[in-house]
Design a protein that fits this description.
Elements: E1 15-17, E2 20-22, H1 34-46, H2 53-63, H3 74-88, E3 103-108, E4 113-118
Antiparallel strand pairs: 1-2, 3-4
Helix pairs in contact: 2-3
């Protein structure tokens, strides 16, 4: 997943090398706050696949509030485990069946490219 940098902010990512001066059009991971931005993006993407995501994630969200001690004890561990279980259980994610063929599904536009490696499960 690529996160676009607004055209008016691209100059802030300018760097020079022997081949010229360049600026990023998509967020690289070396930028300040890039990891937290990417995490918010991924959270927003996966929340639509998990019923009651906001309720499940509420304890973890509270840990991120200002002036809150980060004590990752039982309620937070349970919330984390529930979210992890939901993300890694069918139909979200499952181990591949090496006896079935794989499918490569691609999507592209002028500004992005997406690819998913998947399998169609046999029913019955």
């Amino acid at each position: 997943m690529q996160i676009h940098i607004a055209p008016e902010d691209q100059h802030k990512t300018t760097f020079t090398c022997p081949f010229g001066t360049f600026a990023y059009t998509h967020m690289p991971f070396g930028l300040c706050n890039a990891l937290s931005t990417f995490q918010r993006c991924m959270t927003s993407f996966y929340r639509r696949f998990i019923k009651n995501f906001s309720k499940l994630a509420l304890p973890l969200s509270k840990l991120l509030q200002k002036d809150v001690d980060f004590d990752f004890d039982r309620p937070y561990i349970e919330a984390f485990q529930k979210l992890k279980d939901r993300l890694t259980s069918a139909p979200i994610l499952q181990a591949p069946n090496w006896d079935l063929p794989f499918e490569l599904m691609c999507d592209a536009s002028n500004s992005a490219l997406g690819v998913v490696l998947g399998q169609r499960a046999r029913v019955g």
